[in-house]
C-alpha cells in the first residue's frame, strides 16, 4: 500500500502565494481607503487621464500569457522540453517554446506599463503629485515587480531545462510551480485592472 504525499515544492509555493495574497489585500485596502477620503471631483480628474484602451490591450496580452504558460506546463508534464516539428506547428511545441512565448508576452506587458507611466508623468500624474498618483503607482508598481520576478523565474526554468541531460520530474515540477506564480500574478492584475480602470 502506497501513500501519495503532496509535492512539498507545490505545497510550499501555494503557502507562499497565500502570504502574497495578504500583501495585495493590503494594497487594495490602501487604495479604497484613499479613494474614500479624496474629493470625488479630484479623483475623477486624475482617473480620467488613464488610457483605458491601451491598458485593456496590455491586460489582454498578460491574460493570454497564462494560456501559453499552461500549454507549457502540459508539455512539461508530457516530458516534452522541445518541439517535435516545425516552429509553425504550434500543436507540436514543447515546454521551452511555450515558456519563451510566455516570457515575451510578460516582457511586453512590462514595456507597456513603463510606456503608460511615462505618458501619465507627462500628463502630470506622478507618485508625488497627488494621493491618487501615490496609490496608482504603488499598487501597479508592486504588481509590476511581481511580473518581473515571474520573468526571472521563467529564465531560471528555461536555463534548467536546457542544462538538464534528461528532462524529468524535477524540471516538470519547476514548470508547474512557476505556472502557479504566473497565474496568481495574472489574477491579481485582473482584479487591479477592474478596480483601477473600470470602477470609476
From TrEMBL:
It is a multi-pass membrane protein. Pfam families: COX3. Keywords: Cell membrane, Membrane, Transmembrane, Transmembrane helix. It is found in: Cell membrane. The chain crosses the membrane at residues 12-32, 52-76, 97-115, 135-159, 180-199. It is an enzyme of class 7 (translocase). Residues 1-200 form the Heme-copper oxidase subunit III family profile domain. The keyword Phosphoprotein does not apply. Its EC number is 7.1.1.9. Belongs to the cytochrome c oxidase subunit 3 family. PANTHER family: CYTOCHROME BO(3) UBIQUINOL OXIDASE SUBUNIT 3, CYTOCHROME C OXIDASE SUBUNIT III. This is cytochrome-c oxidase. It comes from Isoptericola cucumis.
